[in-house]
Design goal:
It is built from five helices and no strands. The protein is mainly α.
Length: 114
Protein backbone atom coordinates (compact mmCIF):
# COMPACT_ATOMS: atom_id res chain seq x y z
CA UNK A 1 0.00 0.00 0.00
CA UNK A 2 1.62 3.22 -1.14
CA UNK A 3 1.67 6.34 0.96
CA UNK A 4 0.74 9.33 -1.09
CA UNK A 5 2.65 12.56 -0.61
CA UNK A 6 1.73 15.95 -1.90
CA UNK A 7 4.28 18.01 -3.73
CA UNK A 8 7.12 19.54 -1.75
CA UNK A 9 6.66 17.60 1.50
CA UNK A 10 9.83 16.92 3.44
CA UNK A 11 9.27 13.14 3.64
CA UNK A 12 8.85 12.92 -0.13
CA UNK A 13 12.20 14.58 -0.82
CA UNK A 14 13.84 12.60 1.98
CA UNK A 15 12.69 9.33 0.38
CA UNK A 16 13.86 10.48 -3.05
CA UNK A 17 17.25 11.40 -1.56
CA UNK A 18 17.58 8.03 0.16
CA UNK A 19 16.62 6.22 -3.05
CA UNK A 20 19.24 8.14 -5.05
CA UNK A 21 21.86 7.45 -2.37
CA UNK A 22 21.06 3.71 -2.34
CA UNK A 23 21.34 3.44 -6.14
CA UNK A 24 24.67 5.29 -6.15
CA UNK A 25 25.93 3.23 -3.20
CA UNK A 26 24.99 -0.07 -4.89
CA UNK A 27 26.76 1.04 -8.07
CA UNK A 28 29.83 2.07 -6.08
CA UNK A 29 30.00 -1.27 -4.27
CA UNK A 30 29.58 -3.15 -7.54
CA UNK A 31 32.34 -1.12 -9.18
CA UNK A 32 34.67 -1.54 -6.21
CA UNK A 33 34.06 -5.29 -6.25
CA UNK A 34 35.02 -5.48 -9.90
CA UNK A 35 37.96 -3.11 -9.60
CA UNK A 36 39.57 -4.26 -6.36
CA UNK A 37 39.07 -7.97 -6.88
CA UNK A 38 40.73 -7.80 -10.29
CA UNK A 39 43.99 -6.54 -8.79
CA UNK A 40 46.71 -9.14 -8.38
CA UNK A 41 48.62 -9.17 -5.09
CA UNK A 42 51.88 -9.91 -6.90
CA UNK A 43 51.43 -6.99 -9.29
CA UNK A 44 50.61 -4.65 -6.41
CA UNK A 45 53.68 -5.77 -4.45
CA UNK A 46 55.88 -5.25 -7.49
CA UNK A 47 54.40 -1.78 -8.02
CA UNK A 48 54.86 -0.92 -4.34
CA UNK A 49 58.56 -1.78 -4.55
CA UNK A 50 59.64 -0.78 -8.03
CA UNK A 51 56.98 1.36 -9.68
CA UNK A 52 57.00 5.06 -10.33
CA UNK A 53 56.64 7.20 -7.19
CA UNK A 54 52.98 7.81 -7.97
CA UNK A 55 52.34 4.08 -8.56
CA UNK A 56 54.22 3.20 -5.37
CA UNK A 57 52.10 5.58 -3.33
CA UNK A 58 48.82 4.18 -4.68
CA UNK A 59 49.93 0.54 -4.45
CA UNK A 60 51.00 0.99 -0.83
CA UNK A 61 47.56 2.41 0.02
CA UNK A 62 45.62 -0.34 -1.76
CA UNK A 63 47.80 -3.32 -0.75
CA UNK A 64 46.59 -3.63 2.89
CA UNK A 65 42.97 -3.56 1.73
CA UNK A 66 43.42 -6.14 -1.02
CA UNK A 67 45.64 -8.49 1.05
CA UNK A 68 42.63 -9.78 2.96
CA UNK A 69 40.62 -10.65 -0.15
CA UNK A 70 37.93 -12.75 1.52
CA UNK A 71 37.06 -10.01 4.00
CA UNK A 72 37.07 -7.41 1.22
CA UNK A 73 34.79 -9.48 -1.01
CA UNK A 74 32.34 -10.26 1.80
CA UNK A 75 32.19 -6.62 2.88
CA UNK A 76 31.56 -5.34 -0.63
CA UNK A 77 28.94 -7.98 -1.42
CA UNK A 78 27.07 -7.50 1.86
CA UNK A 79 26.99 -3.72 1.39
CA UNK A 80 25.79 -4.13 -2.20
CA UNK A 81 23.09 -6.62 -1.19
CA UNK A 82 21.94 -4.41 1.69
CA UNK A 83 21.56 -1.42 -0.62
CA UNK A 84 19.68 -3.47 -3.21
CA UNK A 85 17.34 -4.97 -0.62
CA UNK A 86 16.65 -1.64 1.08
CA UNK A 87 15.77 0.16 -2.14
CA UNK A 88 12.27 -1.37 -2.61
CA UNK A 89 11.41 -0.58 1.02
CA UNK A 90 11.86 3.15 0.46
CA UNK A 91 10.39 2.95 -3.02
CA UNK A 92 7.26 1.26 -1.63
CA UNK A 93 6.31 4.43 0.25
CA UNK A 94 6.13 6.32 -3.06
CA UNK A 95 4.53 3.82 -5.47
CA UNK A 96 2.62 0.54 -5.30
CA UNK A 97 4.40 -2.67 -4.24
CA UNK A 98 4.75 -4.09 -7.75
CA UNK A 99 5.87 -0.69 -9.02
CA UNK A 100 8.51 -0.48 -6.28
CA UNK A 101 9.90 -3.86 -7.25
CA UNK A 102 9.84 -3.10 -10.97
CA UNK A 103 11.48 0.32 -10.60
CA UNK A 104 14.09 -0.83 -8.08
CA UNK A 105 15.10 -3.83 -10.20
CA UNK A 106 15.40 -1.59 -13.25
CA UNK A 107 17.50 0.98 -11.36
CA UNK A 108 19.81 -1.68 -9.96
CA UNK A 109 20.25 -3.31 -13.38
CA UNK A 110 21.04 0.04 -14.99
CA UNK A 111 23.30 1.56 -12.35
CA UNK A 112 24.34 -1.18 -9.93
CA UNK A 113 25.24 -4.06 -12.21
CA UNK A 114 26.47 -2.25 -15.31
Amino acid sequence: MAVEYTCCETKFFLNIGIIVFLVIFAGLMSGLTLGLMSLSLVDLEVLAKSGTPKDRKYAEKILPVVKNQHLLLCTLLICNAAAMETLPIFMDSLVTAWGAILISVTLILLFGEG
